[in-house]
Amino acid sequence: MARDAVADGIQLLAATPHVREDYPTRASEMEDGVAELREALAAEGVKLDVRTGGEIALDRLALLEAEELARFGLASNPNYVLLEFPYYGWPLGLPSQLIDLGRRGVTAVVAHPERNVDVQTAPKRMQETVDQGALVQLTSASIDGRLGRRSQNAAFRLLELELAHLVASDAHAPDVRSVGMSAAAEALGDVDLARWLTEDVPAAVVNDVPIPERPPSRRRRFRRVFRR
Fold first, then answer.
1. What top-level class would CATH report for the domain 55-207?
2. What is the pTM of this model?
3. What are the residue boundaries of the structural domains of the chain, listed by start?
4. Which end of the chain, C or N, has fewer beta carbons within 10 A?
5. What is the DSSP string of 12-44?
6. ∠ CA 71-198-32 to the nearest 5 degrees?
7. Using an 8 Å Cβ cutoff, are 62 and 99 in contact?
């Protein structure tokens, strides 16, 4: 997966293991795993910068102590945390969770809402989440069509509404949403927006600097490229 990432032009990758009931990952386990991976990549000469992180289920958020949550900071930045948006149902407690994180100076990055049935039906529902300061992260396989039409249509609609800020591969294994970003960037059909989603905003998160302004879209509506 690391070699595939480098071949696709990826220079930095955030390792974000699940933190939820069925995967009760602890920060120490994540840190040890990332350290071991870094050593293996160095030994193999694979030039990929792997940072720490975690994908935290909403129902686990309140169970994490502040210090543990900071160690799960996205791309090793304790001021950002990646939250796993559910695939079914609307998370009624999310607004209060975002308020609590904001009070602590933490920005939430909401992962893959385009794969949620409620969001697919009404993408504008994400407006409140963004208004509360959260960033929205889309899955690259949604954009290039590998996850089906519903996820792709929702992803493009969120982009049209300017309710999306990052794209990530969400790769789990070589055969589960393979790592890669270039296919999604190509499917966007907008070089400037693709760079903002895959480079500029992620770099701002990594370097803990203000999120750059979104470039004006070159297209009134984005094209859909469905891959069988």
1. alpha beta
2. 0.93
3. 55-207
4. C
5. EEE---EEETTEE--HHHHHHHHHHHHHHHHHH
6. 25
7. no
